[in-house]
Structures are given as C-alpha cells and as structure tokens.
Structure prediction request, 273 residues.
Amino acid sequence: MKIADLLNRAKDEAILRTLDLVDDVFRRRDPLTPPRRLMFDGPRDPAIFKASGAEFLHYYVDLCGLRPDAHILDVGCGIGRKTIPLLGFLNGDGRYEGMDVNRVGIDWCTQHIARRHSNFNFQQIDVFNQRYNPSGSQQPHTYRFPFDDNSFDFTVLASVFTHMFADGVDNYLSEIARTLRPGGKCLISYFLLTEDSRRQIDAGASAVDFPFDRGLYRIQSEDRREDAVAFPETYERNRYATHGLEIESIFYGAWSGLERALSYQDLVLARKL
Prediction:
C-alpha cells in the first residue's frame, strides 16, 4: 500500500472515531447500531445503516414471500446491516445463519446479536478476497458452504458477487442450490451487463463503467480488481439454469443510470426447482 493511501486511511479512521465519540456523548447510537468506524460493508452513517436494513426486509417479505418461521442463510452478512431488522420478524421457529470473510463484522454480530438471540448464528469463513480477506486460506471457486443439503428456505447475497470472479460465482451458485430446500428462494445483487446498461455505460450515464474486459466479466479497476465486478446477464441466466435455479424476476438497479430503480444494484430473485 502506498504511503499516501496509508495517510488517507489514518485520517479517515481519526474522523470516524471522532464521529463515534460524538454519537456516544449525545446518545445518537442505539446498542444494535455498530460504531461508524466498523461499518465496513456500506456507508458509515447510522441513519443509512438502519434504512438499508429496512429496505432489504421489505424486499425479503414483499418480493420473496419470506415467512417468520423461515431458515435463512446470509452469505456476506457484514456487520449486520441487513440482519438486525430480522430480529423483530423471525419467530421462535425461524433460524438465521450469517457468514462473512470479515472477522470484525462477525465478532460484533456475535457479541451484540447472537448472544441475545439463540436462533441467530454467525461464523467467519476464511475465503480469499483481495479487498476483504487478502490472507484467506480457501478459494471461492472450491469453497463448500458449512451446511447440509436442503437446509434453508431463503438465501441472500447482498453485494457479494459484485466482488467475485466468474469461477467463484459459479461455485457459490452451486452451493446455494445444494443448501436450499426445493422451492426455496434466493435474492442476489449484481452489476448486470445488458443491452440497456451497456448503452448507459457508453453514454457516460452509469455510476461505474467497468472499462476492463476479462471475458466472462468486466472490472472497474486493474489495481483493485475485486472492488467492482460486472457480469453479462445472459451468462448468469445460463449458470442459474445449470444449477437448477429458476430466475423469477430481475429488478434492475440505479447504478446503470436507470431513473426508476428499486435498489442501487440489480437484484435477481430465483427459486430452486
């Protein structure tokens, strides 16, 4: 890492610690909201943190038909941004399993959520990711989820495949299909390359333009290749079908410049056949 990057990181951390102190002094942060400095999985703002969770609970219930007794797998659960609203939704028969490559998020969720809610569990998976876990001992394209076949009713991956390459995504789709029960659903966010999104990219209207073509996917940065990854929709449709997952709906996101979008990233809702 360059000296300038280290200095900028130190400056950012100092600012976040100051904001955390102000939040604590004025009691702006409740016990189920992590400090800003730990919010590695999205905007470091308590209000946005809560709004994001509420947004995804709406998707789970209204788009996916999630039930209070569902068994949920959250791959890339982060620091609980989209977990916390489920505390008031799942009943005693429901179960939540969250896993992430980031130890900080897992430790915080274990201490503040799992210790108080026995049907919520969190575990770190030591899978390599250049951005979030550069010392990971296992590779995404060979990793096996630590769960039995047909264990879950619903699986969610929010901004996970946007940081993975094609072989890892293909393996994860296989594992999602293996661990979902027949008829179970998955909701996964993407940057999808379609005729419309490519047109928006060419017109300079998209938030990210993915200038580097790697065949099965495109990336935003050569230096930090896993920071943002986009896949052709046609390719992903083929992979879903290969693994016995039927796509029910795709909700295209605002990242491409779409004016009326449900969310920032594209959301793919599928069902296990």
Q: What stands out?
A: The chain has a mean pLDDT of 92. The chain has one domain: 42-272. Residues 3-25 form the longest helix (23 residues).
